[in-house]
Amino acid sequence: MEVHAHTHTSRKKWTHYLWEFLMLFLAVFCGFLAENQREHMIEHQREVKYITSLTKDLELDIISLKQASDIRKKYINYYDSLVYLLKNNNDSDLDDIYFYARHAGRTTDFKYHDGTIQQLKSSGSLRLIRNNNAADSIIIYDNEIIKGILNQQEVYEAKFRIDIMENHFGKIFNAYVWNAMVDDTAGISRTSGNPKLFNNDPKLINDFAVQIIKLKTAYRITKGYIDKAIHYAERLIAYLKKEYHLE
């Protein structure tokens, strides 16, 4: 009977196992770092994309804010003149009284371009804005600066305009003259010949003047908020462009 000798493999040293473990650990760790870096880059790209979009919204806001500010400046002057003419109670000023009063039901409201901010808030993506100063400035603009304007427009200004339209226009002014002052493009033209008021009762005129003063005051307050918002938005755009290297 033949006896076969068995080949014995020499046992590996503990240092070999340690080396294999370290190599495996390093491979896993490097993979983790690479994946983490990839996610970091993707999130940074998304952050820059949101900031770029937000900057464009801010630029549109500034255009709308300036239009809203200009129209309020114009109407404040109109209402100052209207109150002055009502006080004088001169029949030769009725063309101007009709013209200035006809604008009391009109305005140009600021339109908030909040698409990007709403998307950031609704999707929880505000966390992507890692620049704390930028994130805080954006939140202040949305929650404080703009909210004050919208509240002023939608509550106070609207309330005074509705009161004037519902309780004074029809009682004081000749409806047919009032209607003839507006053309097909909704533009307002002056009357001619100083048409009489439908009712010139002093108490009614005084109440109308009080409401015009309230509306004028509301416009002044809103304009103050708007001018502050323009300055804030311009500084915010400059800051974001600098921090995120935008053109």
Characterization of this structure:
This protein has one domain. The protein contains six helices and no strands. The chain has helices at 14-88, 94-102, 115-122, 132-172, 175-180, 202-243. The mean pLDDT is 88.
In short:
The protein contains 6 helices and no strands. The chain has helices at 14-88, 94-102, 115-122, 132-172, 175-180, 202-243. The longest helix is centred in the first third of the chain and has 75 residues, at 14-88.
The gross shape turns out to be rod-shaped
Mean pLDDT: 88
Q: What is the ordering of alpha helices and beta strands?
A: HHHHHH
Percent helix, as a range, is over 70%
Figure out the total of helices: 6
Whole-number total of structural domains: 1
Determine the structural class based on helices, strands and strand pairing.
Answer: mainly alpha
Rg over C-alpha atoms, rounded to the nearest angstrom: 34 Å
Strand content: under 5%
Oligomer: single chain
Topology, number of strands: 0
Largest sheet, if any?
Answer: none
Note the gap between the termini: 91 Å
Unreliable segments of 5+ consecutive residues:
none
Features:
single chain, 247 residues, mainly alpha, 73% helix
Task: Set down the secondary structure blueprint.
Layout: H1 14-88, H2 94-102, H3 115-122, H4 132-172, H5 175-180, H6 202-243
Helix pairs in contact: 1-2, 1-3, 1-6, 4-6
